[in-house]
């Protein structure tokens, strides 16, 4: 929810207002009349033991003619120092409700759950870490969206903190007007923000013996940015200084609600964060449960009418979830090229009734046309285990769940588009109709190349050359096994800017032609992300590398193509991706990128057909990541030297707290003959004076041949012992 992260300037005003008799004269820019008005309001509020008001907050978000309007209507009941209730009124958009009584505070988050906290007093509850509010940080994403909560937190709870007072830069009276026969003063406060900037908020306060705050409005220009313009206005009315209060006023029913230990934990659940991969694993590949659901326009959506005919996109949303609302325009853009109508999009509202949805849609401006499902009891969401928003389920032509997404952003939009079009059997890049369309495609590829090319490295070992790609900032490189050939091979790693560093080869899977190299020179290096999702048939990809060896005279050539074959159990494609991207000698080990700039494969070899070249899927690395780090060497085939040619020690090792521990010593092998025992800690091997991982051990061991003597230092209990191992040939 992009608009919730701003720091309310109301905070500072409310902080200074509540202290009767406080002098504002020390604050620069304070005019005397503004000071008098604020002190009158503070004195009046200090004399009120109970209070009930209505707060109505209107928020407009959007750009130009595309605008979404949300209104929160809340009832605030306050009993000084003992109880408080902030309840959402009927016909309002959902917003958090807050209750406090007898040292126990409760926050109910609609559609998510409940957070409880025990505090010595009301101020402690509102400032508690479990409730999630920190003045020194960005603010609480749930409470700062509710200006009513901010008002109570600051206006009605006395505070004393001189440091906060220092955040006020100035406040002054802008003017006065007569409203319904009563004088209303407009006061503007300017408050310092965390980044040493400032933000202004206007307040309207009535004049008289019983002054009231009736409205406040932050400066919209300061809250907006290029992507989203925000307008916020809050009015406060129906002041009642002697409301009817019962025990139930401050004790909400929380039966059946999920309890969270903090607001931030609940918020992560609300936006679908934290369990994405678990949810994907549980859903992808399963048959989609059949359902029928009412449509906002009065019709009905029956999943069975679309399975086998169209790809189905179920986009779960609610009016209060800003990322989900913004997704309407994103999805409209994604599927706009589906001229064959092979994709059906359904926005499935969660937990709201038809009246709330109609009210929201009627106030929104510039929304694209789409089908909206009404699911007030979240029955459809429960069928698909939807716990947070936004969440999107993609159902294939065969009726099985193909993908699960958690919001759209610049980092995943292109890959989602590719996934949807490939699954629907629609050409994502159809025929070029105009020069403008061609330019859009060109710009998209250029942007990815500009972003990733610094991580595409050349590899040189002796007279052999290859390519690789850096995937961590500390310098892990993915490449092909036939480039490294063995563990412990030293490489010159060459970056496009001319920088050259030292690298050493780690583990390699010879069967799958996959290997890893680690840069030995300490530092931070340009790197790219490794894709988490499996590639799709027909997906557009970008191939890079250093054919014929690295050269500073040119950048890494760029080849664009599509995936023409996925790893399967048949023919030449066994275990490899196939694309129609050109690769040649020297490209080996170079990266294959998706259109989000993530690595999806590593170049391996050219097939018998020029338009079908083979790449190692990144899943081959992900499935055995630790084995590569541990410098393991396994498999036979394209990688060169076979396992049987490597010398043997005869120990089984384990990584334990940055130490390498001997788990097992094989009878009759060199380790036993040298006197190693189970439980020994390996401290150094050969020339490597510090062994912190199995990878360190294997990289050093790879330098030696059968018959060589190697010095090993071990720790056994309190003793440090020197051992000499004579490496033997494998059986």
Which characteristics define this entry?
seven-stranded mixed beta sheet; 731 residues; 20% helix; alpha+beta; 37 strands; twelve-stranded mixed beta sheet; 18 helices
Would you spell out the secondary-structure blueprint of this structure?
Elements: H1 10-17, H2 32-46, E1 50-63, E2 66-79, E3 83-88, E4 97-101, E5 104-109, E6 113-118, H3 122-127, H4 147-156, H5 162-165, E7 168-179, E8 182-192, E9 198-206, E10 213-218, H6 220-223, E11 229-240, E12 259-260, H7 263-270, H8 276-283, E13 292-295, E14 300-302, E15 311-317, H9 322-334, E16 343-350, H10 354-363, E17 371-375, H11 379-383, E18 391-395, E19 401-405, H12 413-424, H13 435-452, E20 456-461, E21 464-470, E22 476-479, H14 481-484, E23 490-494, E24 500-509, E25 514-519, E26 540-544, E27 558-565, E28 577-579, E29 591-593, E30 599-606, E31 613-617, H15 619-622, H16 625-629, E32 633-634, E33 651-656, E34 659-665, H17 670-674, E35 681-685, H18 694-701, E36 709-716, E37 719-726
Parallel strand pairs: 6-12, 15-16, 16-17, 24-32
Antiparallel strand pairs: 1-2, 1-11, 2-3, 3-4, 4-5, 5-6, 7-8, 8-9, 9-10, 10-11, 13-14, 13-17, 15-18, 18-19, 20-21, 20-23, 21-22, 22-25, 23-24, 24-25, 26-27, 26-29, 27-28, 28-31, 29-30, 30-31, 33-34, 34-35, 35-36, 36-37
């Amino acid at each position: 929810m992009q608009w919730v992260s701003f720091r309310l300037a109301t905070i500072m005003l409310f902080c200074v207002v509540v202290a009767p008799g406080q002098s504002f004269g020390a604050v620069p820019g304070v005019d005397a009349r503004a000071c008098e008005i604020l002190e009158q309001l503070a004195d009046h509020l200090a004399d009120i033991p109970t209070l009930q008001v209505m707060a109505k907050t209107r928020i407009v978000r959007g750009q130009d003619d595309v605008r979404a309007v949300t209104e929160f209507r809340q009832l605030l009941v306050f009993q000084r120092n003992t109880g408080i209730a902030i309840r959402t009124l009927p016909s309002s958009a959902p917003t958090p409700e807050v209750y406090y009584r007898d040292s126990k505070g409760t926050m109910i988050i609609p559609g998510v759950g409940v957070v409880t906290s025990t505090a010595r007093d009301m101020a402690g509850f509102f400032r508690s870490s479990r409730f999630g509010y920190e003045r020194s940080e960005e603010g609480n994403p749930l409470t700062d969206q509710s200006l009513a909560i901010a008002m109570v937190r600051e206006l009605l709870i006395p505070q004393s903190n001189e440091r906060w007072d220092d955040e006020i830069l100035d406040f002054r009276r802008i003017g006065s007007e007569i409203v319904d026969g009563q004088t209303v003063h407009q006061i503007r406060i300017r408050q310092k923000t965390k980044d040493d900037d400032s933000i202004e908020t206007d307040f309207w306060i009535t004049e008289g013996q019983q002054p009231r705050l009736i409205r406040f409005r932050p400066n919209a220009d300061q809250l907006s940015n290029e992507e989203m313009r925000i307008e916020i206005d809050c009015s406060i009315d129906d002041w009642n200084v002697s409301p009817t209060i019962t025990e139930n006023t401050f004790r909400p029913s929380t039966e059946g609600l999920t309890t969270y230990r903090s607001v931030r934990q609940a918020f992560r659940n609300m936006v679908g964060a934290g369990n994405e991969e678990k949810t994907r694993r549980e859903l992808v590949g399963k048959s989609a449960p059949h359902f029928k659901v009412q449509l906002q326009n009065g019709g009905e959506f029956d999943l069975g009418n679309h399975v086998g005919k169209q790809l189905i996109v179920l986009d779960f949303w609610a009016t209060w979830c800003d990322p989900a609302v913004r997704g309407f325009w994103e999805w409209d853009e994604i599927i706009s090229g589906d001229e064959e109508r092979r994709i059906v999009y359904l926005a499935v509202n969660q937990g709201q009734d038809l009246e709330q949805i109609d009210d929201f849609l009627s106030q929104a401006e510039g929304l694209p046309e789409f089908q909206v499902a009404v699911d007030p009891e979240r029955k459809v969401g429960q069928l698909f285990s939807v716990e947070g928003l936004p969440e999107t389920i993609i159902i294939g032509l065969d009726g099985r769940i193909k993908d699960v997404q958690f919001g759209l952003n610049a980092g995943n939009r292109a890959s989602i588009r590719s996934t949807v079009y490939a699954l629907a059997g629609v050409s994502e890049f159809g025929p070029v109709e105009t020069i403008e369309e061609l330019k859009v495609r060109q710009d998209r590829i250029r942007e990815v190349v500009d972003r990733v090319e610094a991580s595409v490295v050349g590899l040189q070992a002796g007279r052999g050359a290859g390519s690789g790609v850096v995937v961590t900032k500390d310098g892990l490189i993915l490449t092909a096994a036939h480039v490294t050939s063995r563990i412990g091979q030293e490489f010159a790693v060459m970056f496009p800017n001319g920088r050259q560093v030292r690298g050493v080869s780690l583990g390699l899977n010879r069967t799958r032609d996959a290997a890893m190299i680690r840069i030995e020179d300490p530092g931070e290096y340009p790197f790219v992300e490794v894709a988490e999702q499996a590639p799709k048939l027909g997906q557009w990809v970008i191939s890079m590398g250093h054919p014929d060896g690295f050269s500073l005279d040119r950048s890494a050539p760029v080849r664009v193509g599509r995936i023409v074959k996925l790893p399967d159990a048949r023919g030449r494609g066994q275990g490899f991706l196939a694309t129609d991207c050109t690769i040649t000698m020297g490209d080996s080990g170079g990266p294959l990128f998706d259109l989000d700039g993530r690595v999806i494969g590593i170049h391996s070899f050219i097939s018998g057909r020029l338009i079908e070249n083979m790449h190692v899927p990144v899943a081959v690395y992900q499935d055995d990541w630790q084995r590569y780090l541990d410098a393991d060497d396994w498999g036979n085939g394209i990688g060169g030297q076979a396992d049987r040619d490597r010398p043997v020690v005869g120990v089984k090792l384990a990584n334990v707290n940055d130490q390498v521990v001997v788990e097992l010593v094989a009878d009759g092998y060199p380790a036993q003959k040298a006197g190693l025992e189970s439980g020994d800690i390996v401290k150094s091997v050969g020339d490597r004076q510090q062994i912190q991982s199995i990878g360190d051990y294997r990289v050093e061991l790879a330098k030696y041949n059968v018959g060589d003597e190697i010095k090993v230092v071990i720790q056994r209990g309190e003793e440090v012992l020197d051992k000499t191992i004579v490496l033997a040939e494998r059986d």
